[in-house]
Amino acid sequence: MDAGDDRPAFETWVATRGDALMRFAYLVTGDRERAADAVQDALVGACARWERIVERGDPEAYLRRCVVNADTSRWRRFQRRERPEADATRLAEPDAGVDVAQAVVLEETLWALGGRLPARQRAAVVLRYYEDRSDTEIAAILECSVSTVRSQIHRGLATLHDWLAATEEAATP
Fold first, then answer.
1. Which residues form the RNA polymerase sigma factor 70 region 4 type domain (predicted)?
2. Quick one: DSSP state of residue 2?
């Protein structure tokens, strides 16, 4: 089978799952342009090898791993980290009885702090708490062991907790 035969299957996958891949990339990178670049790099690399990727099973996990790797590679090339800006789109509505202004400030703070996490920790936290993935699924996507996933999530949450506590302490008069 030549590469031309794979193109319709690849295009169909991108048409049906491309938006989800883009949302994942945005959550990992915290920046729309970086997310688009990472998705583009992942899809360009996958197009020529699509048949082999599908044969290995779970092309979505493979492409998510490619997105994380592409963002990490891009960050290393530029040797700098951009701080994500809070997006006007909110992930969730605040609980009843919670001050909306406080909820917005907390969410913006978490976005900013989450963008400072190392890429793999950020990806593990996003996959667990935004996409509700299991440790096994995250391990397959990040191509690591389940214990590494747990460690990455634990470290990421501990770091976020410490940063958030320091931010709240600094804001207290």
1. 115-160
2. -
Long-range contacts of 8-15 (CB under 8 A, 24+ apart): 9/50, 9/51, 9/54, 10/46, 10/47, 10/50, 13/50, 13/59, 14/43
User: Which ranges constitute the DSSP H helices of 79-99?
Assistant: none
Question: Residue 148 pLDDT more than 90?
Answer: yes
Residue 110's pLDDT is what?
A: 66
Could you give the CA distance from residue 34 to residue 41 in angstroms, rounded to a whole number?
A: 10
pLDDT at residue 169 tops 50: yes
Q: Distance (Å, rounded) from C-alpha 147 to C-alpha 127?
A: 15
Domain residues for 97? Answer: 3-171
Q: Which is nearest to 123 in space by CA: 81, 64, 76? A: 64
Total domain count for the chain?
1
Question: Phi/psi of residue 143, each to 5°?
Answer: 55, 60
**CB atoms near residue 173 (< 10 Å):** 2
Per-residue exposure over 21-49, b if at least 16 CB sit within 10 Å of its own CB, e if not: bbebbbbbbbbeebbebbbebbbeebeee
Distances (CA, A) of 3 to 48, 52, 53: 6, 11, 13
- What is the CATH classification number for the domain harbouring 165? 1.20.140.160
